[in-house]
Amino acid sequence: MGMKLIIDTDPGVDDAFAIALAALSEDVRLLGVTTVFGNVPLENTTANALRVLQLCGRPDVPVAAGAARPLVHPQLARAGHVHGADGLSGRSASLPAPQREPEPGGAVRLLVSLLEAADEPVTIAPIGPLTNIALLLAAHPHVKPKIGRIVLMGGGVARGNSTATAEFNIWSDPEAARRVLVDEDVPCVMVPLDLTHRCAVSTAWLNELAQSPIGAALTALTPDYLASYRRSLGWDGIVLHDAVAVAEAINPGILRTEPYPIEVDCTFGPGRGTTLVDRRLPGMRGEGDGAVAPKTVQVAVDTDVAGLGEFVLGRLRRSVPA
């Protein structure tokens, strides 16, 4: 039957690749997709998710729109300069028009109904700001036993992108991220920038992907994204952040993880949105003011980069299911 997966997303070019990765994987039961503000406004992220699923021949997957803004404080900036004004390099309309409307009732209602109906643990892959997931866990704690694990793209161990130390998804709603990563007892895997940047793919990889119809449609979404990463990488390639996390969600162990306590900076100084990963040895983690929460998060620290690239490429080149 395949492992059960829900994706929470803010498409976004790398989100589009991640959704397609799950939608085209025959060993995955993609139960639903929920959308959140982030790279671009909620209206765009929802339309983009519907269009990517239509491209992949998966109009059967329900989509529900979620949070349009962070839990508490306004989002400081979007990422249109990276993903294009519509989130897909201005090319969202090049994807097929969706055959279904978003589900009535919104993202949290869909998440609750899918989890309540599940007869085995469900993996949730949040690849945007964590607002919907924080709302779900806060308002519906009875569904937590149905969540096998949360595999999220976000955070950084030694680097940021929105600021020197904060990664975009966490920085967009630090209070939500803290609720999920620090306060809740659901198992979490955090796939940080440090690893996703090491998994960047080249234009040669994209050219190989473009040999298939769906791959060609996905690579056509990348011009603005390529231009942005040409500046940050210093070579022609892109970082498929969210696809790295979804690869781990659907193939547990493709990333190597280590357990660390984490704190999320929710102050208003230059560290806001930073994930503080405590890499001290357990005996050095202190007591009193220096103590850390007993909860640990599995932080992805390594992978077979070439093998991961082949895994993602192979699945994205598949044909639309009959």
TrEMBL record:
Using the record's annotation, list all stretches that form the Inosine/uridine-preferring nucleoside hydrolase domain: 5-306
Q: Where is this region: Disordered?
A: 82-104
Q: Does the keyword Kinase apply?
A: no
Q: Which Pfam families match?
A: IU_nuc_hydro
**Any single GO CC term annotated in Swiss-Prot or TrEMBL for this entry:** cytosol
What's a single GO MF annotation on this record? purine nucleosidase activity
Which superkingdom is the protein from?
Answer: Bacteria
Q: Which residues cross the membrane?
A: none
Q: Which InterPro entries match?
A: Inosine/uridine_hydrolase_dom, IUNH, Ribo_hydro-like
Q: Which UniProt keywords apply?
A: Glycosidase, Hydrolase
Stored PANTHER family? INOSINE-URIDINE PREFERRING NUCLEOSIDE HYDROLASE (PTHR12304), URIDINE NUCLEOSIDASE (PTHR12304:SF4)
Q: What is this protein called?
A: Purine nucleosidase
